[in-house]
Amino acid sequence: MVYLKYLEQIWLNNISLFGPKRVEEKIMRKTKRVSPELTRRSFLAATAGAVAAGSLAGCASGNTVGEEGESVSLAGTAPQVAEEVYFSSCMGNCSGWGCPINVTVREGKAANLTRPDMKLPDGSPSPYQRICLKGYTNIERMYADTRLQYPLKRKGERGAGEWERISWDEAIAEITDTWKNLQGDFGPGAVGFLAGSGNVDSTVKTYADRLIACMGATVLHNCYDNTGVYCQYNHGALGATTTGGHNEYRDIVNAENIFVWGSNPSESFIVDYHFISEACEAGAKLVVIDPIFTTTAAKADLYVSIRPGTDGLLAAGIAQIAIRDGKIDVEHMRTKTVAPFLVKEDGFYLRLSDLGRAEAGSDQDRIMVYDGVQLAPFDEVEEPVLEGSFELEGFKVRPAYQILVDRFSAWTLDQISQYTDIPLDVIEEVASIYLSGRSMVLLGFGQDHYANGQTFYDGVFALADITGQECKHGAGSTCVDLTGAVAQGVQSTAGMNLDGAVAGPTVYVNHLPQLVEEGSIGEFDTAPRSMYIYYCNPLANMPDRQRWLSMLDKMDLVVVSDMVMSETAEYADIVLPVAFPFEKSDLTFRQTGFVKLIDQAVETPFEVKSDFDVITLLGRAMGFEQYFTQTLEDFLSSCVDNEVAQEAGVTWDKLQSEHAVWSHPEEPSVIGLNAPILTATGRLEFYHEGIKPMMDVGQEWDMLKESCWFWEPPLEAWHENPLFERYPLTFISERCKYKTHTIFNNVPALLEIDPEPFVKMSPSDAASRDINTGDIVRLYNDRGHVVLKAVVSNGCRKGVLVIDHGWEERNFIEGHYGDLSSIASWPRFEQDNWFDCLCEMEKVQ
Q1: Of 105-119, 153-167, 188-202, 558-572, where does mean pLDDT reach its minimum?
Q2: Which among 36, 175, 491, 656 is least surrounded, fewest beta carbons within 10 Å?
């Protein structure tokens, strides 16, 4: 109790605009006196789950929780006090998305975090209930000195840090008056809303959709991970309800070979990495393919270093070896994929309507295949032809599989070895392992961050299609961030029953700077003049940061709602303080298989409001009072009032009593086995008929090329690019265990372990520039620069520089790593291509 009151006192008595100064230093000094026998290591373990003072006050048992639920005895440090335990969730955008957490509250303050004991329907412990070291620091994050306390209005230049306190009434009035004027002068699209992945699995987050729809405002769509996500969905998981990708995480343990390709799950997949460990303990081989030697690579049976941007070629090489060695699965291709479908010269499938035998677009207008004698609808032939070119009934056609083989055959294995910088015998070894048994590819978003990223995803999925390494347990692909167990029954009602609402345009934000600068682009003729930014920190996470800054300067009004003074908030006109996850109720349902009702554990502090209340205030002030009459409980309960929820046994009453209700198949979901293939054809699609770009802005478009796998180099980060002579280094970032984007950037315990950014480089790149570990270096190109410390690492590939992801402007000595990257995208995808970036490096001191 003494230490809890001490925490409260220093928090309340050291008020600035954003909170107390250096609170963490005072707390650390105070709590170190509690138990002299604690070592520094055990102290950090004990405090990893909470603000030091709050945690050390202890639970009723006299214990606190350290790493992975381990109890650290602190008996006798404080009198026993009354406590309450609330069911809640960590809401980070990592592989867990919504890891369940019990919050212990004493005297109105969150004081401890523990792991709930959640069970599957058969009574066994849920595999989706672990908490990582970041999750255990959420109390410290919630009580950090960077918490916003009341609405703020900019006084000086954007980014100058000069603010004045205003009331909520003043903030809401200024925002909505400006929005009304802008929409009256320029149209509904003059106001744009940008949401990100903060509190990623929040149902309350969707409530803003009601305001957006009522206003007809522009939806500003993020561009991160789009290549990886949409390639997965377009191949076979589009609209899948039970998992976001092909194989649910639980299926990893059934694999005989695991390929970690484009991710570092031991750092970015912490709570679910045990699935990989369990598979390896059962005898699975682990192969890691990555440009850098990661902590996951240290656990691998085989590590393969690959030239950045060439992963799609390696997939093609494995496919060629499978074809050469007769390891393709003909039956799987014929029954599960589009392989036998006949494709015309215009890139579209041959259908009955082309032959005058059905109405175009009707249910009877089926795709044709060839049985070697005659044409027939695909569902009437048992053994359709897969290879060859034919002229049939006046149409020149090829089976889709023949198109794929022709694309693969454009590259010899020697060329693939040369471009990937992988010896031919290693490529053969990788192929041999992949083809030796049930193989699971654990995909990440590493390749997604190059403009040519689709060449990897399309290649891996095509490889699985022709070899049959999918649609079965232990074989296929799973993606960090996507393929946990998606619980059934939660359907947001935010956009329902809005009479007269007209949807506004959707603009992918990589085009936003150009749209704002030029006033129109492609079919979009209204540029947003005001932005409402929520659940995201774009200035710290978007590429080409300098263009973003220039674009924000042209805005009439930038509003940021956040829990902390983020880098983006520093450049806003008005900043609104919103609640921490433990300070509000919510519903979550992704990744864990449970629909979870999150309790509000503590009251919102100071003048902080929940996101739900903020959107309600804005909606009413905009004149839409009739659509903003619900209470939070009304809204959340309506989201489980549907047929799917009823069939899954999810009701509001049950959630209130049990908090977490399992509503997912007991068997791990696998697309094509026990979960439907939800593509347009009903088949796994390595060929995409009539494919279109995500956003048409008048770019050059080659539909025939984009319809099937091909390989071209990245737009910038390529050694044959003339720019390489000036900027011979490729800059990439990696995930580390201490951060999830920037949302844990204000946690003193984590900052003590990982206090500042640094750039890792190979010994040869360091030696050629006379750089040693600890030196200050400058990375630069034509777009910008960043200054930070150097670390020489044998794990870095020559020509590749690596900085941990998740830092903000205040963390760098000078500049920003986001200033190096480019906003350019491939024509097919609207994608943040952070790694498609060349630069040079020099020693500063």
Answers
A1: 188-202
A2: 36
The DSSP H or E segment spanning 705 is: helix 703-706
CB 582 within 8 A of CB 88: yes
pLDDT band of residue 238 (cuts 50, 70, 90) is low
CA distance 363 to 762: 59
> Could you report the per-residue pLDDT of 725-751, keeping only the tens digit for each?
999 999 999 988 888 888 888 899 999
Q: Which structure tokens are listed for 658? A: 């049990």
CB atoms within 10 A of CB 551: 21
Question: Number of C-alpha atoms within 13 angstroms, CB side, residue 238?
Answer: 14
C-alpha distances in angstroms, 307 versus 28, 76, 124, 513, 780? 45, 57, 44, 31, 21
C-beta pairs of 364-369 under 8 Å, 24+ apart in sequence: 367/341, 367/342, 367/681, 368/341, 368/342, 369/340, 369/341, 369/342, 369/399
Handedness of CA 9, 12, 14, 19 (dihedral sign): positive
Contact 506, 219 (CB under 8 A): yes
Higher pLDDT, 61 or 584: 584
Average pLDDT over residues 43-67: 33
| β-pair partners for 375 | 370
Q: Other CB atoms closer than 10 Å to residue 413's CB: what's the count?
A: 16
User: Which residues are within 8 A (CB) of 69 and not within 5 positions of it... i.e. 6 or more apart?
Assistant: 114, 115, 131
pLDDT digits (tens, 9 = 90+) for 58-104: 233 333 333 444 444 444 455 678 899 999 998 877 776 788 999 99
Residue with more model confidence, 49 or 795: 795
Local structure of 674: helix, strand or coil: coil
pLDDT in tens, 128-177: 988 999 999 999 999 998 899 999 999 999 999 999 999 999 999 999 99
| SS3 state of residue 585 | coil
Minimal CA–CA distance to 586: which of 535, 541, 620, 544?
535
pLDDT (average), residues 181-197: 95
DSSP 675: B
User: Which three-class secondary structure string do you get for 722-760?
Assistant: HHHHCCCEEEEEECCCCCCCCCCCCCHHHHHHCCCCEEE
Q: Is 703 exposed, middle or buried (0-12, 13-18, 19+ CB in 10 A)?
A: middle
311-324 pLDDT, tens per residue? Answer: 999 999 999 999 99
CB 514, CB 548: distance < 8 Å: no
Element (H, E) at 643: helix 643-648
Structure confidence by residue, pLDDT tens digits, 615-626: 999 999 999 999
* Cα-to-chain-centroid distance, residue 715: 23
Show the CA angle centred on residue 304, arms to residues 303 and 305, nearest 5°: 120
As a residue count, the chain comes to 845
Residues 742-762 as b/e (b if ≥16 CB within 10 A, e otherwise) read bbbbbbbbbeeebeebbbbbb
Nearest to 569 by CA among 153, 277, 180: 153
| Span of 259-268, 332-341, 417-426, 757-766 with lowest mean pLDDT | 259-268
* DSSP structural state of residue 309: T
Q: What is the DSSP letter of 530?
A: E
- Give the closest residue to 449 by CA, choosing from 822, 839, 828: 822
Contacts of 453 (CB under 8 A, 6+ apart): 227, 228, 231, 447, 826, 829, 831, 833
Token representation of residue 766:
């360091």
Task: Please give the span between the terminal C-alpha atoms of the chain, in angstroms, as a whole number.
Answer: 49
d(CA 737, CA 696): 38
d(CA 589, CA 486): 6
| Phi/psi-derived region of residue 761, left when phi > 0, alpha when psi is between -120 and 50, beta in every other case | beta
Average pLDDT along the chain:
88
Question: Which residues have CB under 8 Å from 177's CB, separation 6+?
Answer: none
